[in-house]
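Pinned message: reference record for Holliday junction branch migration complex subunit RuvA
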Amino acid sequence: MIGRIAGRIEYKAMDHVLIDVRGVGYVVYCSDRVMASLPGVGEAVALFTDLLVREDLLQLFGFPTLVEKEWHRLLMSVQGVGAKASLAILGTLGPDGVSRAIALGDWNSVKAAKGIGPKTAQRVVNELKDKAPAVMAMGTSEPTAAPVLPEDDAVIEPAAPAPKAAPKPKPNQSAQAEALSALGNLGYAPGEAAGAVAQAAGENPEADTSALIRAALKLLAPKS
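Predicted structure (tokens):
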């Protein structure tokens, strides 16, 4: 499985880009939105990729973030949604827009993508609504940079007493922070998001991030 490609752009077409990786060229298909965001020919680029394997075809699809890649994989798990339709949805809404539409049951936004009819849009929302919070939570944590070692690592200082480790935050505190971040990405005001997450956490203190997001969204949903 090819999960990530980093190299130099050799050429850009309407729906794909050729990336040279140490002399080997990889054709990577991207959504319109991603294509527009890529740098120019001759410049460096890195994309997360998903490999589609068929009897007579191998195709790579590229995404700037792991969240977008995961949405692509989930969208294609829905009956009637292939790679082309998935890219159309992501190209129209972006990963945050897809998260918002599915979490709120807004199939009309999904239907706005080229080639997506109302039945397919409704199927996407219905089949993925329980999986949306887990994908949304993926975007709440940033990768940690590797520590920079000192240049002169040959000098060994006398060992000092190890400082006492700071108490780890309770798992629920971390889950609440991630849930707040996810709701903020969906456009909710900090106040209303914090209130919903606090209420959800109070009702279920052991809830993880995904469960908190689901519960908060239910609390924030318009009352009919």
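Pinned by admin. Summary line: The chain has three domains: 4-63, 66-136, 172-220.
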